[in-house]
Amino acid sequence: MDHIAAHNQSSKVAMPPTKLGNTTPNTLHQRMSEIVPNRLSDIRIIRTKYGKGNLGNVTVDMAYGGMRGIVGLIWEVSLLDPEKGITLRTHSLPELLPRLPRGRRGSEPMPEGMLWLLLTGEVPTKEEALGLSAELAKRGVVEPWIEDVLDQCPKTLHPMTQLSYAVNACQHSSKFAKAYASGVPKDTYWQYYFEDCLDLIAKLPLIAARIYRNVTRAEGAPPVGRGLSVDVSLDWSGNFARMMGFESDEFDDMLRLFLTIHCDHEGGNVSAHTCHVVSSALADPYLSFAACMNGLAGPLHGLANQECLLFIVKMREELGDNASNDQVEAYVRAIIKSGQVIPGYGHAVLRKTDPRYTCQKEWAEMHLPDDPLLKLVGQLFEVVPRVLAEGGKVKNPWPNVDAASGVLLNHYGLKETNYYTVLFGVSRALGVLSGTLWARICGLPIERPKSLTSEEVVRLFGPEVSPKM
Ligand code: AMX
Fold first, then answer.
1. Residues flanking ligand 1, CB < 6 Å
2. How far apart are CA 213 and CA 218, in angstroms?
3. Angle 28-50/126-139 helices, nearest 10 degrees?
4. Is 402 considered catalytic here?
5. Segment Disordered: which positions (predicted)?
6. Cα separation of 352 and 422, whole Å?
7. 385 CA distance to ligand 1 centroid (A)?
8. 293-349: per-residue pLDDT in tens?
9. Which CATH number is 55-460's, of 3.40.630.30, 1.10.580.10, 1.10.10.10, 3.30.1330.60?
10. Per residue in 422-443, pLDDT tens?
11. Is 347 annotated in the active site?
């Protein structure tokens, strides 16, 4: 298999130099500037040696079937293994989490460390991660008119719509769009793209916190106004928590974990792929990420965390706190019989329990062992996979990332389920913008797969099997 050979061989091409005896912490931009030329040279070698390698055949069913199994994308920052789950720059989540740097406060990793890793391929030192944290805090400003626009949104406008709206509006300050319009050379695009990515990631806590404040304000109360700003002494996640109005150290840590583990799931999922395809037309990071958020807002993708908690809460209302597994099973069967999906279960690529579910469940068992909703999460795990596996239709009956996250958020008082996907989106910015920035660094062209009509399928494979068209 050519592609496996390519994969094995690729580990022999020169990788970025490791940092030796460096006393002054690198900035992310410095480190990227060192890494980019080496990596581009690696990719030139890979393409020269393995460019004609065959990545597999495409069948008609695959084209009708959501392109499952078609390998047609390069996404440098993460890779999903159906059995083991996500690897971020080759590190599995359980292996990586203990290695990522902690901040000045808290015991969970700073998402800034994950961002550094995704962009550079290197686990940063604590000083580097703290430096990036300070840099993001400095960049974390939003034009006042965008804050006013958000304040004018009706409380009932879905928070994901508000997020997408605000991110699109931030495009007003895109450095890449301005640089492109002024005709800068192609090989410098990534530098402006990098600036926009960091600016956008830095603005997200302020934007998302403002949305939270506005949708949760009391009936008749005025919107936030000019009251929110980033505190440069706090990390990215701490700032987000504080601006939303949460003050406890345990909430901060839960949010750090949430924002770290939701960041990326390789390039073919709806949110990442949308960001990738929009950016391939050289739309700037703001336009690309806003589109990505619109995809994440779908109930089969990121909205599933909202759906999942609603499902668990409703089940509790109907079954009470002492439901037996038999009662849970009857409830689950009735939902499936009515034609609905069980949110938080199943996946297009994964074929085992999602490690992101496992790490959230373990965290919950340690910090909120007596939460009645956690008990139901455990019972669903005992019941749902067996029920979904019956009949063999569902390809993956195991829990995904969304099966436990809502219970954590709800426990700490973040009860507005329609806000949950915004948190997912803030985290996802780290991964999709890193992957998309690398696509720009590599100069990947505008994306344009070929499509067919059903008549064309019949023409290609008929006429003896042709239906009447
Ligand atoms: N409950 C009930 N039925 C399910 C199911 C679930 N959790 N997961 C899959 N199925 C059904 C599908 O609806 C499909 O039925 P159909 O043939 O009648 O249309 C059949 O099983 C085969 O589907 P599949 O090939 O196993 O899954 P898929 O790749 O088409 O879809 C996913 C994957 C995630 C959309 C699906 O498993 C699902 O709808 N899960 C529930 C929603 C959810 O948790 N989404 C979040 C995923 C993670 C994320 O992106 N955040």
1. 300-302, 304, 336, 341-348, 388, 393-396, 400-402
2. 10
3. 110
4. yes
5. 1-27
6. 26
7. 12
8. 999 999 999 999 999 999 999 999 999 999 999 999 999 999 999 999 999 999 999
9. 1.10.580.10
10. 999 999 999 999 999 999 999 9
11. yes
